From TrEMBL:
Regions that span the bilayer: 83-101, 113-132, 138-155, 167-191, 211-230, 242-265, 285-304, 380-399, 411-433, 473-493, 529-553
Compartments where found: Cell membrane; Membrane
Protein name stated in the entry: NADH-dehydrogenase
Residues covered by the NADH:quinone oxidoreductase/Mrp antiporter transmembrane domain: 133-409
PANTHER family noted in UniProt: NA(+)_H(+) ANTIPORTER SUBUNIT D1, NADH DEHYDROGENASE
Family listed: Belongs to the CPA3 antiporters (TC 2.A.63) subunit D family.
Protein's UniProt keywords contain Transmembrane: yes
């Protein structure tokens, strides 16, 4: 079965190559169908590997297995968490291709296969990053994912704002990538290894960590934290979402940012978590501080937005903070909770972006104020947005609610942060849904305070759509049903709990990769609905509904939430500012790690 593992990456890569070579000679529909078949095949392969059993699948490409602990071969490691993320990335890529069916006004001239080819390349980068067991290969796959994402963000190259957003995305993420490469170089200089398991086992032989190892930790994590949009590395994300085509936003917020979070903890647990690595207390302190900052700032900024795509982008920033905060506890239960949260969040967030895309193409705007009451004619779409807002707020039995409940049980202070952040981001979506689909509240005039209102946007379809294309709404509904299934299928929660145990097992990972020994079988944590978890989910959903109602009918009572001028000015749109914040973030991470 290990021979099937590389196909999860190879199938979309080959599909992209074929579309790039022959796409111009194919009808557009044929190219889209072929791309969808490739994405679906990779999804099925990942699902088949997941169903095979709990033992990790290790595949040394070309038979270049280690000799005396040394290897120059490329290794893919299909443990439960990595395979799950690869399956999620492939499934969401397939959903995006269905959503994009004859979506854009016109493909690039003479290259009708370009868009599905880039989606397949993006999928291959994400799947490869999730499965690789080698740090340098992880960097290569991450950069492949990044380069394609820059191009997809600036897909409408004739628009100045799209090019600017793509450049900002590219510059900031490239800086993060260079930092990671420097860190990988330091680790290679220290251990002579590039494999995660080999580096981790070699570091285990050192008596304690030193400044070089701390520098490597900071540099490697900088690139991953940039991609995961953690504060203060997050500035590129809202700007990119504001200009990227809607299907691309579905992938960026639905799975790419989560892939960055996965990378942070995959690298920590396999490389730095041993006795000669970075002490857990140091790493926990750094990631907890960044996580709390990210969650609070993202939620506050989410509430400020009237541009619907930016609102959802800041919501992603806020939830990234929650993921970091809980995962920094380094416990299997918190890890299992966040894995469920990520699955539910991927379906919910992608569905909300899909709905925003329908509004853009129907009305040429994603401005909450300008759309006041105009979408009353789309009650089903409004229902989907409202349900998505409640899911973001952690309403049971959605997967976001189950993941939130399990994570909250991992540490006493977490429920306060999780309830407040979930409620505020859910409230922002519910407020927008009430204003746009019900015409609730009084119409607001443009006060000129928000330069990125979302009005006057170019539709991404050929003209404004009069009847909403069925695939666009069907994909949004299916994604929300998927988020619901995450919270209501006990077998899935049990599988995630078992995966979380092996994900945090530093020695077990090295034994599986280097010694072909199966990891131990410690008892998985109890993962499921509990009465406190259900009550906290209901509380955060109720707070979200109350905040949204106050914003619509008693705005003076929530006016203090809008007094965040300094925070808004930080999002300046200038690449130089963002580069400075990236450098400052590296310094902050170093100080927090070496405190």
């Amino acid at each position: 079965m290990e021979r099937l593992l590389p196909l999860i990456v190879v199938v979309p890569l080959l599909g992209a190559a074929l579309l790039a070579a022959a796409g111009r000679h194919l009808p557009r529909q044929a190219g889209d169908t072929f791309g969808l078949l490739c994405a679906a095949t990779a999804t099925a392969l990942a699902g088949a590997e997941l169903a095979r059993g709990p033992r990790p699948v290790v595949s040394w490409l070309g038979g270049w297995t280690p000799v005396h602990g040394h290897s120059v071969g490329i290794v893919l490691v299909g443990d439960r968490t990595g395979l799950g993320l690869a399956a999620l990335a492939s499934l969401l890529s397939a959903a995006v291709l269905v959503y994009s069916w004859r979506y854009f006004a016109e493909p690039p001239r003479r290259t009708p296969g370009a868009f599905p080819a880039m989606i397949l390349l993006f999928q291959a980068g994400m799947a490869g990053f999730a499965l690789t067991g080698d740090l340098f290969d992880a960097f290569v796959f991450f950069e492949l994912m990044g380069v394609v994402a820059y191009a997809l963000t600036g897909y409408r190259v004739e628009a100045r704002r799209a090019v600017q957003g793509g450049l900002t995305f590219g510059v900031v993420n490239s800086l993060g990538g260079y930092a990671s490469l420097l860190g990988i170089g330091l680790l290679y200089a220290r251990t002579g290894q590039l494999g995660m398991a080999q580096i981790g086992r070699r570091l285990d032989q050192f008596p304690r960590h030193d400044a070089v190892l701390t520098a490597a930790f900071v540099l490697v994590l900088t690139g991953l934290l940039v991609k995961s949009a953690a504060v203060p590395f997050h500035f590129w994300l809202p700007d990119a979402h504001a200009v990227a085509p809607t299907p691309v936003c579905m992938l960026l917020s639905g799975v790419m940012v989560e892939t960055g979070v996965y990378g942070v903890f995959r690298v920590y647990h396999t490389v730095f978590a041993g006795p000669g690595g970075v002490p857990a207390a140091d790493a926990r302190r750094a990631l907890l501080v960044l996580g709390v900052l990210t969650a609070v700032l993202g939620a506050v900024m989410c509430w400020q937005q009237r541009h619907l795509k930016r609102l959802l982008a800041f919501s992603t920033v806020a939830h990234t903070g929650l993921f970091l905060t809980a995962l920094a506890l380094f416990t299997p239960k918190a890890t299992a909770g966040i894995a469920l949260y990520v699955l539910g969040h991927a379906g919910t967030k992608a569905a909300l972006f899909a709905c925003a895309g329908v509004l853009l193409d129907r009305y040429g705007s994603v401005d909450e104020h300008e759309l006041h009451g105009r979408a009353r004619e789309l009650p089903f779409l409004g229902t989907l947005v409202a349900v998505g807002g409640l899911a973001l707020a952690g309403l049971p039995p959605f997967g976001t609610g189950l993941g939130k409940a399990v994570a909250e049980e991992s540490a006493t202070p977490l429920p306060v942060l999780f309830v407040l952040v979930s409620a505020l981001t859910g409230a922002a979506v519910l407020r927008a849904a009430g204003r746009v689909f019900l015409g609730a509240g009084r119409p607001l005039t443009d006060d000129g305070a928000d330069a990125t209102s979302g009005s006057g946007e170019e539709p991404e379809t050929e003209g404004e759509v009069r009847a909403v294309p069925p695939p666009m709404v069907a994909v949004a509904a299916a994604l929300l049903l998927g988020a619901l299934a995450v919270g209501t299928v006990p077998a899935l929660a049990d599988a995630v709990a078992r995966a979380a145990v092996s994900f945090t097992d530093h020695a077990g990972y090295a034994a599986a990769v280097l010694d072909a020994r199966p990891p131990g079988t410690p008892s998985p944590p109890a993962v499921g609905w509990t009465l406190p978890g259900v009550l906290l989910g209901l509380v955060s959903a109720a707070v979200a509904v109350a905040l949204a109602a106050l914003a619509l009918y008693r705005p003076a009572l929530v006016a203090p939430l809008r007094r965040t001028g300094p925070l808004r000015r930080l999002q300046s749109g200038h690449i130089g500012d963002y580069v400075a914040w990236t450098a400052a973030g590296m310094g902050l991470l170093a100080v927090l790690t070496h405190w």
